[in-house]
Design brief:
By secondary structure, the chain is an alpha+beta fold. It contains one helix and three strands; from the N terminus they run E-H-E-E.
Length: about 70
Amino acid sequence: MEDHVYKVIHVVGSSGKGVEDAIQRAIARASKTLKNLRWFEVVETRGNIEGDRVAHYQVTLKVGFTLDEG
């Protein structure tokens, strides 16, 4: 296994469908502007309630990516 140096950022994904969809949206969006994404960790899960139902999910992620050499 190669040695790596990682940069870690926080991103927040949101979805009306569920937590997994919020995670997928966050990773998909981050991958448009960042490269070498390697891992994520769910840091916080929140939601919005309307009436007696969950209306929206919001998930905060730590995302790690490797830095380019040079």
